[in-house]
Amino acid sequence: LSQPLTKRRGDGTIGVNFSTSLLEGLQELKYTWVIGDQVDTKDSQLTSCQSTFGQYITNLQTMVDGYNYIFFHTTAIEQKLIEEEMNEINKHIQHGEDNLTWKSDGIWSYIETLSNLVNDLEQRVRRVQKNLCDMDDLLLTWVQQPIYERKEGKKDTLLNLEDRNERLKKVYSTINSDGEKIKCMVNENKTLLRINEVTQDWLAYLEYLDSLIINGLVD
């Protein structure tokens, strides 16, 4: 119980730093208490703390999973856009590792504050990435639907060009409509990432999106 709440791993991720053996021991004590065997005062106090530790561990694990998702599943461009928020989160984590143990006061307040920061960022990052997937889906529809088709749908017939003007108008209309949807998603991402001013990092992100759209058009 004199250990910090979390630990930093070699790859930069974090983990809940609670002894597995201690958790198993607390469970055994609970069983002993349930069947009515005598336990000394110290063991009784530990047993009564099991539910508290369980609550701490459950919420910490959720926070850890969210942090590690952000760590592993964001691109270098996305990481630059959330760098300030991640730095703030890392300060809280470092504070906990340096100043708090499982016996400290104020553990729940610390866990709650850190969890709110991490969970909020994780949800926004996932939404940003969902928008990016939706953009990819729109671009894919441009590729999957041919502008011109062969007469009667046969491979050995000529292309049907009699209604080519109408077909082109329909394709242009679809691309324009999808373009407006993409603009809305980009603006939403800007809000989700809390971009208040145009920076080089945001411009790099826009260039990345432009490259995706250009590839869709070329395909």
List keywords for this structure.
single chain, 219 residues, mainly alpha, two-stranded antiparallel sheet, Dynein_heavy_tail, DHC, Dynein heavy chain tail domain-containing protein
Low-confidence stretches: none
Q: State the order of secondary-structure elements, H for helix, E for strand.
A: EEHHHHHHH
Major sheet attributes: 2 strands, antiparallel
Strand order of the largest sheet: 1-2
Number of continuous helical runs: 7
Structural class: mainly alpha
What is the C-alpha radius of gyration, as a whole number of Å? 27 Å
Find the count of extended strands (DSSP E, 2+ residues): 2
Overall shape: it is elongated
Average pLDDT metric = 88
Helix content: over 70%
- Strand-residue fraction? under 5%
Measured between the Cα atoms of the first and last residue, the distance is 59 Å
Keywords: Coiled coil
GO molecular function: dynein intermediate chain binding; dynein light intermediate chain binding
Coiled coil: 111-178
Domain Dynein heavy chain tail: 2-110
